[in-house]
Automatic annotation (TrEMBL), chains A, B:
One Pfam family it belongs to: tRNA-synt_2b
Ligase among keywords: yes
Species whose genome carries this gene: Apiospora hydei
SUPFAM superfamilies for this protein: Class II aaRS ABD-related, Class II aaRS and biotin synthetases
Reaction catalysed by this enzyme: tRNA(Pro) + L-proline + ATP = L-prolyl-tRNA(Pro) + AMP + diphosphate
Keywords: Aminoacyl-tRNA synthetase, ATP-binding, Ligase, Nucleotide-binding, Protein biosynthesis
Domain spans labelled Aminoacyl-transfer RNA synthetases class-II family profile: 71-478
Gene3D superfamilies linked: Anticodon-binding domain, Bira Bifunctional Protein, Domain 2
InterPro entries to which the protein is assigned, alphabetical: aa-tRNA-synt_IIb, aa-tRNA-synth_II, aa-tRNA-synth_II/BPL/LPL, Anticodon-bd, Anticodon-bd_dom_sf, Pro-tRNA-ligase_IIa, Pro-tRNA_synthetase, ProRS_anticodon_short
Name listed for the protein in its UniProt record: proline--tRNA ligase
Enzyme Commission number, as recorded: 6.1.1.15
UniProt similarity note: Belongs to the class-II aminoacyl-tRNA synthetase family.
Lineage: Eukaryota, Fungi, Dikarya, Ascomycota, Pezizomycotina
């Protein structure tokens, strides 16, 4: 049914996507609502503040945003870019409802797993609904009804729509918001092999898509978390504003996210004789967790790899900020009232000397209990973990810059902050099984479909790219999503006809360049400053040299270009710049 | 700032809206997901069932729908059509958040007014939110922040997005759903005159838009209800499936919706000597309402004009289905326990004879209380209304076919069911005042902006047009929104190259016709039936005559066309048909 790079044209013919000829011959900034420049620039302004100041969007409620015309135009370009690459893997576009039912999510056991991040509501008949944060349940139910034979597979369906997640701390504007736009693609195959083939095709399309955005990105091996499944990759934009960590090797191609990354274990002869302790509490508040790690300069609590600790202590609550106090108080109370058995779980990093390990196991180490605790060590049950289930010594510390790569001989690992822009998952039968999405394979043989899901954060790309490319003068955009590619700013004394002539010259006969004319009733310097703030990739100024010699000044901040260009040479010159953006 | 028919081009250049050349040269049905024909045709199938059966959409939850590729393609065409007409009145496109806050809606007193139709929810911090059913509050707040001077007006902003209304009885699919797509335009002006000018410009654009859809529509004077304001028109598609009533004159141009419509009062000499009673209860359950109307053949309870009754009895609850039983039981209980004063309100239609009016006023009419009531009339307070506040006699009956028009001498009124597709409101300062959306008019003089709002039901148009144009063979669509304009179906033995040649011939050099090739692995008769079900406006069949003489069969069900057409004549012939659709 599908051929890769297939030719079903889901996009509408031109007649439906452009306005009639008399309307489209000239795009002017005066004709749309651009409330820019209303805010003073702050000292350390992030991309989000710049987006607000330049008139792209506005916050309506905490973590919830209105898109203004400039932002919406950019968003639409990004959507069209995504459409193109989804079409290249033969995907069909749908639009699923935002309202979903809690009963449906109970069938996949995700109602509880998602917890307070789910926006829940009841309708007037008290039926429990939710605002979908993702659509595996809905699409699997839909496909289960409509697809019954392996002959209808492979099937690839995607949408670009609003998603809802009640973030505890929404921040940085559209980078982490509560109502946001996502592209989600779901693949359905008859066998694991076919599903993995789909997975690779989508990965290739993602690479082409991010290549076209011309932003640096890394593809990291990832864990699949609540979504389920067992093959997963994340697409990250390295950024100091990021909330994720990506680990990459400087020698081989190894890249992984923090949860999954591994480094070569430290050699035996570095065993540390002094210990520090990081303390945590179990989710059910019944035991204290001590993580023992070397007391050497440069190491601190923030180096503890809580993901690794959780693999040996599954009940650990790593999100409690004041865990010691809580446990001390709580357990003291508990022991008085209900005779609950107190327990201490020690996790000992592989770097610790055998002497220390022994004193921990034996209950004699002085740091076993928090300072100020009045508990009697001998009354507490002590458990000590020094190796994983597979018998590997514990590595309790996060990977740090300079750790050795396990995938090659000489590589050193680099750790950097990043923003996740996309994610691919092979889901297997995680959803098709509980939701009964089966196809007939042979006579009397039914099998659950093999699924994949593949997301791209549309709103988030806007926020991340804003952060990544902005400089002190304002925003900057890749050509692929800039609201306009070129702005023409006529100075004082320049005739309208001249501005229109430049406009037509730049747009070209094939209408390949997206040009806009700044015809607003503002001063020349104001418009130049505004063009920098908004981040038009290329600015064409018609100043005094235009009046005397028909020469424009072409500016491109990203390429550090400021050049006089004659009228006839404009198209070639501009196209050359655009090809680099 | 705006010129009517202005030229700011918000639509993206072709490069962003079409796929690369190698992808778009051929649109084939095999390349997208079209789960059609899965349901057997029912006897009395409505448009919604046809939409489901043809693969346009599917219900996900009661009153909530997923759009499938075919439906989404149509929806996108409709959106582009709306974009074009919004651009023609200089409107800028935005995209407002679906999440809104209850606190904001309290400021305009609409939180309570909307009642149970509002989907309400609390976030994890217990902040009360809602899913916006319309966006006056949000847009007014946004504009209040960003527009401060009359110099920035007029301002016209619109969006096309999802809206939420928790309908008591969602029905007929997307005709009355709980999550639906709407276009909403908001206008902001500095004076009433300017606002009325905006109102007229939008009305003209609406007429052009509905004209282009080529469906019959009526524009009715309307009441503005909860939205507020004092000038309002509704755009209706007459339809037996409609839930609204439109009254129009067969002689003059008078059209109004039922709430607002007036007919010439009946002449005096028709006064009826026999009475029937319609009974209702007050919202607070404290009084019974008797509406007295003539006991003549052809009149029934459904002829009672509850809108008219409410203007003289504001507390009437017209939605209670078994009002008599409720009041009888309720009041009986109440009178025992709390000594509440029982009250009876009589509304007497102008057609009743004076004798009857007197017996009602005097408490002697035998029908004053419901059959089976054990109450003593003499213990009940009786109030009788025979004229409106302005002194006009009461007309308790709905307008009926053949009533006399008040706007012309000879006209007779026609009453027909209709579906509301659009609505225009002049809002005045209904929202700008409470939300502080003021502009500076002169030095030290601020004034609230004069607003208008103008909706179009995007999902509803799809449902209404489906109902309106469907016949026993399947759906039918106007050219403007059909998923494709022409489908080419090659029969057995026809070479791929021939089908492609026909395709290219039809699309034309300017790509003016939206053609799709049915290249699916199904039989010729199956494809023809499917084409009728889906409702492609024009079907081009390549059968035996094609093989022998390069002659196609062109079918158009709406125009009752079935014609042999030679290859060379196809473009002219097809364009001629399309111009009528």
């Amino acid at each position: 049914m599908f051929t890769s790079g297939g030719s079903f044209d889901q996009s509408l013919p031109d007649r439906f996507t452009t306005t009639s000829l008399q309307d489209q011959h000239l795009a002017c900034l005066s004709k749309t609502w651009l409330p820019t420049g209303g805010l003073a620039q702050a000292d350390k302004e992030d991309g989000h503040s710049k987006l607000v100041r330049a008139g792209y969007l506005r916050q309506s409620h905490p973590g919830v945003f209105h898109m203004l015309p400039l932002g919406l135009r950019m968003q639409e370009k990004l959507e069209k870019l995504i459409d193109k690459h989804m079409l290249s893997v033969g995907a069909s576009k749908v639009s699923l409802s935002s309202l979903s039912s809690q009963a449906l999510w109970e069938r996949t056991k995700r109602l509880e797993a998602y917890g307070p991040e789910l926006f829940r509501l009841n309708d007037r008949k008290d039926a429990p609904l939710l605002l979908a944060p993702t659509h595996e349940e809905e699409i699997t139910t839909l496909v289960a009804k409509l697809v019954t034979s392996y002959k209808n597979l492979p099937l690839r369906l995607y949408q670009i729509g609003r998603k809802y997640r009640d973030e505890l701390r929404p921040r940085q504007g559209v980078l982490r918001s509560r109502e946001f736009l996502m592209k989600d693609l779901y693949t359905f195959d008859a066998s694991v092999d076919a599903a993995l083939q789909s997975y690779e095709e989508v990965r290739a399309a993602y690479s082409r898509l991010f290549d076209e955005l011309k932003i640096p990105y890394v593809v990291a091996e990832a864990s699949s978390g609540d979504i389920g499944g067992d093959l997963s990759h994340e697409y990250h934009l390295p950024s100091s504003m990021g909330e994720d960590m990506v680990i990459s090797c400087n020698s081989c191609s190894y890249v992984a996210n923090e949860e999954l990354a591994v480094a070569k274990p430290p050699s035996q002869d570095q065993s540390a004789a002094k210990a520090r302790v990081w303390r945590g509490v179990s989710k059910d508040r019944t035991f204290l967790v001590n993580v023992w790690y070397p007391n050497v300069p440069g190491l601190s609590e923030s180096d503890i790899n809580t993901h690794a600790i959780k693999t040996v202590v599954p009940g650990l609550d790593s999100s409690m900020e004041d865990s010691i106090a809580f446990w001390t108080q709580d357990s003291t109370k508990e022991s008085g009232s209900s005779q609950k058995v107190l327990k201490l779980v020690n996790v000992v990093d592989r770097r610790m000397s055998p002497t220390i390990s022994e004193s921990i196991k034996g209950g004699s180490h002085p740091q076993l209990l928090p300072v100020g605790s009045n508990l009697d060590v001998s009354s507490i049950k002590i458990e000590t973990i020094t190796s994983s289930e597979g018998g590997q010594p514990i590595n309790a510390l996060r990977i740090r810059d300079g750790d050795n790569c396990t995938h090659c001989e000489s590589g050193k690992l680099k750790v950097e902050k990043a923003v996740e822009l996309g994610h691919t998952f092979h889901l297997g039968t995680r959803y098709s099984k509980p939701l009964g999405a089966n196809v007939q394979m042979r006579e009397n043989v039914m099998a659950p479909m093999q699924m994949g899901c593949h997301g791209i954060g549309v709103s988030r790309i806007i926020g991340a790219v804003a952060n990544h490319l902005a400089d002190e003068k304002g925003l900057n955009w890749p050509r692929a999503i800039a609201p306009f590619e070129v702005v023409v700013i006529p100075g004082r004394g320049v005739q309208d006809e001249d501005a229109h002539e430049i406009y037509d010259q730049l747009v070209g006969e094939k209408q390949e360049v997206d040009v806009v004319l700044d015809d607003r009733a503002e001063s020349f310097p104001w418009k130049m400053k505004d063009a920098d703030t908004v981040g038009h990739p290329i600015i064409v100024l018609l100043g005094r040299k235009w009046l005397s010699d028909r020469i424009c000044e072409v500016q491109c901040r990203r390429l550090k270009v400021k050049e006089d260009v004659a009228f006839d040479e404009l198209p070639v010159y501009i196209n050359n710049l655009l090809s680099q953006l």
